[in-house]
Design brief:
single chain; 2 helices; 24 strands; globular; TIF_beta_prop-like; TIF2A
Length: 321
């Protein structure tokens, strides 16, 4: 049993191999050194490595993870701000520093395996909460993009069609106050369950029970505790994933988190939760997309360091799936 991992040091990149020998002893061995590497990321499939070097900060090198040979580079007129792979490693997103004259379309989307450019667009600001600005469901069936007043949804077929247009989404979710989106892994498909049902005695039948989304919260605040309400409506698509759209509290209106199930035929509202004292939010999905943790934060006085925070656990019943 062995596994390779990357360590970034002040000098650059180190590749290590961790393994168990025949006697069960754990060993770590350094097997490669690359000086001057500032940032690195494995592709999710483990076949590629993306590197940013200190002596060439205007490009990202893509290497074969077996040979560590450079396959190609994504280069721009300004320095690289961020880069990342899509969930299954099919795409690579590279953001260069925005400059109106020198680099107006500073965000590039390329096919990771072929270096083919899919699109480029303008991304004026990049932060930890807004990166990546293009977000995929876990199986890459859909790609979501937050724009002013809406969320644009693109299908896998659009991206692979050869004439992709970032301004022509498959679906559009109207969200006038949206400030963040959080895209889920895709729910486990139910072929196995369907096969199991097919083997049952046809003379007997069962009626599945439905349950509404449930939520619980715990909060700590420097002033008052947070509260909220939740609801669900209808059933979403099977296997398409979800997009959670957060609209922050503003002008006396409470914050809202709306969860949409995604399918080629449309985006259906699967659940909705209202929050008070929530100007920011961060969501962490369960591995199968059936539940999520929502952390909210606000500092109404703008005088305290901690402000008011709350943590919510949201889980969807069968009626929301």
């Amino acid at each position: 049993m062995q596994s390779e991992f990357i360590a970034l040091t002040k000098d650059g990149l180190e590749l290590h191999n961790a393994s168990l020998d025949a006697s069960g002893e754990f060993k770590v061995e350094k097997i490669r050194n690359i000086d001057g590497v500032e940032a690195a990321e494995w592709s999710p499939q483990g076949d590629l490595v993306a590197l940013l070097r200190s002596d060439s900060r205007q490009k990202v090198d893509i290497l074969n993870a077996d040979t560590w040979e450079v396959l190609y580079s994504v280069e721009g007129p300004t320095t690289v701000s961020k880069f990342s792979f899509s969930p299954r490693g099919r795409y690579l997103l590279v953001c260069f520093r925005f400059e109106a004259t020198q680099c107006p379309e500073n965000l590039r989307l390329v096919e990771a395996a072929t270096a083919k450019e899919i699109t480029r667009l303008t991304q004026r600001g990049v932060s930890e909460t807004s990166w990546p600005p293009l977000r995929w469901t876990g199986a890459e069936s859909f790609m979501c993009r937050l724009v002013k007043g809406a969320v644009h949804i693109f299908s896998k077929d659009q991206l692979e069609g050869g004439s992709f247009n970032i301004h022509s989404p498959l679906l559009r979710i109207e969200a006038p106050r949206a400030s963040a989106i959080f895209v889920s892994p895709e729910p486990v498909r139910r072929e196995a369950a369907a096969a199991a049902d097919a083997t049952k005695d046809p003379t007997t039948s069962t009626s599945p029970s439905s349950s509404s989304p449930s939520s619980s919260s715990s909060s700590s605040s420097s002033s008052s505790s947070s509260s909220g309400s939740s609801s669900s409506s209808g059933s979403g698509s099977e296997g398409g994933g979800y997009c959670a759209v957060f609209s922050k509290e503003t002008k006396g209106e409470p914050a809202v988190l709306e969860v949409y199930s995604l399918a080629r035929g449309g985006a259906a509202l699967a659940a909705k939760k209202v929050f008070f004292h929530a100007q920011e939010a961060d969501c962490q999905w369960a591995y199968d997309g059936r539940a999520l943790l929502v952390k909210t934060h606000t500092d109404a006085s703008d005088l305290t360091y901690y402000g008011s925070s709350a943590l919510y656990f949201l889980k969807y019943g069968s009626s929301a799936l």
